[in-house]
Sequence to fold (252 residues):
Amino acid sequence: MIVAIANQKGGVGKTTTAINLASALAMRGHQSLLIDLDPQANSTLSFVERNGLKRSIYDAIEDSSCKLDDVVIPALNQENLWVAPARISLAKLEARLIGELDAHFRLKDRITSLGDRFSHVVIDCPPTLGLLTVNALVAATHLLIPIQSSYFALEGTDDLLETIEKVRSRANTHLQILGVLITMHDRRTSLARDIKHQIQKVFGAKVFDTIISKNVRLEESPAYRESIFSFAPDSTGAADYYRLCEEVIDRA
Ligand SMILES: Nc1ncnc2c1ncn2[C@@H]1O[C@H](COP(=O)(O)OP(=O)(O)O)[C@@H](O)[C@H]1O
Ligand SMILES: [Mg+2]
Fold:
């Protein structure tokens, strides 16, 4: 399965979800690949040493003589997990691909050429609906949409759904919405409960039963460059993401 984690809003929990879902899948013994498609490279930094990086996902997409295999490196401190790292250079990729007839299909083609090396691929998308995110949607079998439990939670989802429909109509007719994930939920407040009901009204059964609570440990873990499972295995954040992983496997 190839699951894209997308929402063009920043700060909704895409990277946190990508890191910890990929990590949970790897812990269950699945050969997993985390592809970082965000020029900010936040998920890369959780698992690899930035200084030693020679090549990144940019090279694999832009340069036809560079294979995805050539940029994939094993994650630090995590068995069964590999990372296709991003660097800030990824920000110039969209401009480089203008006029290329296969611009939307680059990532898909590169993943296909990996064969069956990985059973699970997780793609962390940038906070835009541009060519990078479209590449992820074209390459993916499944889409996971994190939505932050906040007053403006649903703002922008129309644009996201429109993009998904465009991709489905031609480039990737099999793309499935695996689920909508409510993140940073504070179950103590009535506002959060209202927001949850609102999201459930719009997305119905697509909303995951698992809800990711607001958790300080999840906020801290990237700074220590660890997944929540090694950083704070007894935290509610670890329990939430473990349950999400089980639900993802059940739904796929
Ligand atoms: N469940 C959570 N509880 C507390 N903080 C969180 C949680 N999920 C994410 N964060 C923090 O919120 C910020 C934005 O999350 P991030 O995953 O980077 O979002 P995105 O990738 O969508 O921009 C980060 O500082 C992250 O550590
Ligand atoms: Mg991010």
About this structure: The CA atoms of residues 62 and 96 lie 8 Å apart. Strands lie at 2-5, 32-36, 73-74, 81-84, 120-124, 142-148, 176-183. The pocket of adenosine-5'-diphosphate (ligand 1) is lined by residues 10-16, 42, 127, 183-184, 212, 214-215, 218-219, 222 (CB under 6 Å).
